[in-house]
Amino acid sequence: MKKTVLKFGSYGFLVGISFFLLVFLLGDNLSYSIQEVIGYTSMIASLSFIYFGIKHYRDKVNNGVVSLGKAILIGLLISVFVGIGVAIIDYIYTTVINPDFATEYLDKTLATKKETLSPEAYEIEKLKLTEQMEAYGGSGFMAFIMFATVIMIGFVISIISGLILQRKQ
Question: What residue numbers bound the domain in which 18 lies?
Answer without folding.
Answer: 2-165
